[in-house]
Amino acid sequence: MHNFKSPLWRDRRYWQIIVQLIAAFLVAFVVAILWINLNRNLQQLGIKFGFDFLKQQASFDISETPISYNPSDTYSRALWVGLINSLRVAIAGIIFTTIVGIFAGISRLSDNWLLRNIAGVYVEIFRNTPLLLQLLFWYFAVFLSLPKIENQISVLNLVSISQSGVQFPWFRLSSEFFALLMGLTFYTGAFVAEIVRGGIQSVPKGQWEAARSLGLKPGLVMRLVIFPQALRVIVPPLTSQYLNLTKNSSLAIAVGYPDVYFVASTTFNQTGRAVEAMLLIMLTYLTLSLTISLGMNFFNRMVTIKER
Fold first, then answer.
1. Are strands 165-167 and 172-174 parallel, antiparallel or unpaired?
2. In whole numbers, what is the pLDDT of the chain averaged over residues?
3. How many degrees, rounded to 5, is the angle at CA 276 between CA 273 and CA 280?
4. Half-sphere exposure (CA, 13 Å, Cβ side) for 4?
5. Residue 118, Cβ neighbours under 10 Å: how many?
6. Which run of H or E residues covers position 93?
7. In 3-state terms, what secondary structure has residue 87?
8. Residues near 75 by Cβ (< 8 Å), separated by ≥ 6?
9. CA–CA separation, 303 vs 138, rounded Å?
């Protein structure tokens, strides 16, 4: 019996390797052309590529600085302030969006007619209007309509509210921060509400009936039986919404909140280092997105139902 071996050119694995090598070569070729073209254009403009400008004096003020900063600090310090501002609004936005989304999603399935319809109206309005428009609404129609700082509203002498923001005994949050936070929270919360509603409806009705037959109250049925099972459907699309919220925070420039994009834009306007500034912004949002993805993937593995 002869051991027949097919020729190499008919081997599928051989062609898979060849195609991948060709694809990698084409990608490297395109990147090389772009790099050469970029260097040639920068030389014609008399600009040298590099990040040495980060050590230069920034010479511009930032209205909101969680850490110490003044215009005599370097551009790297200014970008660090912008990054912290972005993280503050992104983390707070994810927390409040989760709360609003879960509440609205469960309310959409409520037996209470009024609550169900209020949740439905909220979802339709905030999901179908542009985020930029909502940010401008929160900033100009809500927070700038508050009393001026000399006529500020005091709540139990603990919190003061005015056009400049909310003043707590130990720190202050600006109107720009709240406008951005409210806009991101209610906009993204509308999408999360639909994800939660879909996840709950994916749980078989038999699970509802079984839980009720045990005498559990509706709140306990949802918290102990239905919602944990719905999480395996909710978490993957929820991750995408968290990523969208983080990236949409770059619209902070519309209300004057000094996030990392705002600071980087000011930096390249002053230094002319647009390419370097754009690379830093891309690297920042890429790192934030990958971190969120890793965290949510870990959480997804925790809530996945394990079959024995």
1. antiparallel
2. 90
3. 135
4. 2
5. 15
6. helix 75-107
7. helix
8. 53, 54, 55, 56, 57, 58, 267, 271
9. 36
The answer to whether residue 59 scores a pLDDT higher than 70 is yes
Structural tokens at position 13 = 């694995």
Cβ-defined contacts of 269-274 (< 8 Å, 24+): 270/58, 270/59, 270/60, 271/53, 271/56, 271/75, 272/47, 273/47, 273/53
Q: What is the pLDDT of residue 209?
A: 87
Residue 158 per-residue DSSP state: T
Angle between helices 260-271 and 75-107 (to 10 degrees): 150
| 45 and 222 Cβ atoms separated by less than 8 Å | no
Separate counts of helices (H) and strands (E) for the chain? 10, 4
| Residue 159 host element (H or E) | strand 159-162
Q: Tell whether the torsion through CA atoms of 92, 98, 101 and 102 is positive or negative.
A: negative
Sequence letter at residue 214: L
Report the alpha-carbon distance of residue 173 to residue 177 in Å, rounded. Answer: 6
Structure tokens that stand for 144 in this block: 């700038």
Q: What angle do CA 121, 127, 130 make, to 5 degrees?
A: 125
Structural contact between residues 251 and 241, judged by C-beta atoms closer than 8 angstroms: no
Task: Give the HSE-up count for residue 32: Cα atoms under 13 Å, Cβ half-sphere.
Answer: 6
- Give me the phi and psi of 43, to 5 degrees please: -65, -40
pLDDT bracket for residue 170 (50, 70, 90): confident
For residues 176 and 255, is the Cβ–Cβ distance under 8 A?
yes
Calpha distance 129→135 (Å, rounded):
11
CB 164 within 8 A of CB 120: no
**Cα angle, residue 192 at apex, residues 186 and 246 outer, rounded to 5°:** 70
> pTM for the complete prediction?
0.85
SS3 sequence of 11-63: CHHHHHHHHHHHHHHHHHHHHHHHHHHHHHHHHHHCCCCCCHHHHCECCCCCC
